[in-house]
Amino acid sequence: MVSRKKTRSIYQLKITLKDIRPPIWRRVQVPSDVTLNYLHWVIQFSMGWSGSHLHSFSIQGVEYGIPMPEFGFDGMELQDERLVKLSKVILWEKSKFSYLYDFGDSWEHEILLEKVLEPEAGIAYPICIKAKRACPPEDCGGSWGYQELIERLQDPEHPDHEHMLEWIGGVFDPEDPEFDEITSRLKRIPKDTTHFEGYF
Predict the structure, then answer these.
(1) Could you tell me which residues come within 8 angstroms of residue 18 by beta carbon, excluding any fewer than 6 positions away?
(2) Long-range pairs for 150-154: beta carbons < 8 A, 24 or more residues apart
(3) What residue ranges of the chain have pLDDT lower than 50?
(4) CA within 20 to 30 Å of 200's CA: 6, 49, 103, 186, which one?
């Protein structure tokens, strides 16, 4: 019998930030054999987060993340995401799982495996193929705080308008996902993310 080397698949994932309307989402393609830690950085960089807060995955009732016993997170029964490949926990198209970023603001993302594809020649994965709307600013208070921030930024008569404008850095377009920046950031993810700190 002639053995054939198995070609790795490409997972097309839709990452949607929950509890915000109109929706904020990204469509990315990643190799199926990446670790969950690698996927963490794909989510961070495609959405536009900074990676400065804690995070976890919830997949079929199991929590994955980076155990931090020194900070009291060893009792969470957290499986080490650096040791788990995406293809081992997500197998079927239309499977969904959750990714939580910033345990204070609680940014919850729904991740849908839309398609399992063959890799295309000449494509360097991961890639983002579509993006809708800008990522909320860090530390703005979660989905409710973000909605309030947008209302204040869009109302020049609001007493907090100038303060919020200054806090945000003077410019913020909630409709602009900065697609070209996403592509650039994804290229900076190393093959081994075990010690990657992710600053962009």
Answers:
(1) 108, 109, 110, 143
(2) 150/174
(3) 1-5
(4) 103
CA–CA dist 57, 98 (Å, integer)? 6
pLDDT at 31: 98
What DSSP assignment string belongs to 29-56?
EEETTSBHHHHHHHHHHHHT--S-S-EE
Residue type, 37: N
- Regarding pTM above 0.70, the answer is yes
- How many other C-beta atoms are found inside a 10 Å radius of the C-beta of residue 15? 21
pLDDT value for 7: 59
Concatenated DSSP letters of 64-128:
EE---GGGT-GGG--EEGGG-BHHHH--STT-EEEEEE-TTT-EEEEEEEEEEEPPPTT--SSEE
| Residue-level pLDDT at 72 | 58
Task: Identify the burial level of 29 via C-beta atoms within 10 angstroms of its C-beta, where 0-12 means exposed, 13-18 middle and 19 or more buried.
Answer: buried
CA 97 to chain centre: 12
Q: Is the peptide bond before 190 cis (omega within 30 degrees of 0)?
A: no
pLDDT at 24: 98
Helical (H) or strand (E) element with 179: helix 179-186
| Token reading at 167 | 């806090």
